[in-house]
Design brief:
Length: about 450
Amino acid sequence: MLLCIVIAFQVLLVHGTTFTSTFSQQVDVLENEPALEGIFHRPPYKNLAPVYEACNVEFAFPSEEERLSALATGKYNPDVPVPIDVDVYFPNEFAEPYIFVTLPRFGSGVPYSLALLTNVQRPNGTELVAFPNYYWHNSHGQDCNGITSVYRIQIDSCNRMWVLDSGEINFVQHCAPQILVLDLPTGKLVHRYRLPADVFRISTSRFVTPFVDIADNPPFGQCKQAFVYMADALGYGLVVYDVQRAKSWRIENKYTIPDPDFGTLTLAGESFELTDGVFGLTVTPHGLGLRRMLFFHSLSNDAQIAVPLDVVNNDTLWHDGVASSIEEFILVGKRGVQCAASAMTSHGFLLCGFMNPIAIVGWNIRTPYASPNRIVWAENPHTLQFVAGLKVRRNPAGKEEVWMLSNRLQKVFGGTINYHEINYRIQRCGVDELLFGRECKP
């Protein structure tokens, strides 16, 4: 059998200089066209620092008996799992980061939906191991106290992982969607919130992205004042969860739905159909002196939308259905093409994985959402096919890094995937290296 040629698992902490350019200098660069041409000159394609490459996903099991049982019962089908999201946790300045991957249960055959990347090399790629452990996942929706299916996660500044469990497998709702909060130093569950029936639509909703905004961050805060925003891609809405009050509410209107003109997604010459609503979520960073906004977009749409956080976080404003606070929603602009996962740097650059060009594109939120202000930070039609997971994280040296997971979703949906070539990648690069077109160093 032809074995996949993979890059060995390599995760080295980046001990470089901190992000030294001030935000005002960056704004000046963006608004000065001659400077823009010089500083943002880039080679045709960008090589990011590889962390993980695989032809197909390799799973660890508690025992060989468990593996064989899962294969025999159809709970494990090697050709079904598709990695979607990545996030990283730095336990200290000396240790390698923990790298987490999600694998939603689009269908039967996914043995577990949340995993930790190991350094064990197998024929098709580096091995994954279930997180927190295998038995959180192995009921396959029969035990709603476990984990059913996870599209995306978020690790906060308080060393906690927020897991958005959609509760469905193969389009069947087995459990109510829920938020699980795991303490990463111990791996223990510290909070659970099951969404009440009035904020999701049974057999329709699909919760694909969480974004957690914490007001009382360390070192002075106690990590208690948190709001979670959840993208319901197929229910065409947003759910807001006030953690302190243990209360949630639903938001939906004309801005949370897809546009049929953007229901065909084309990547590297292959097309597939999706009518996904709200998909990418992020917020204005603290400390910029701006009114803080929730930025969101639908996958099957080209519109970038913003709504003030103080409006979103006020549950009394959302009692009138689709007409609620509609005047507060801002059409920031249209990009003419779809983008997938999004993230925000601390200096206010909103990043998104574009379909055309196949690239990570950055936009300074203090400038108009116009083509000259949407800068290609990294373009590579080979390694960035469908950026499904995108995070900005600060490493122990104080430097911001962009982490991204790409998959060839067009080949998965089209049935053209070839497991003798690289299909799944995790890559990283420093924010300043991306912004100024420098080489990405591991």
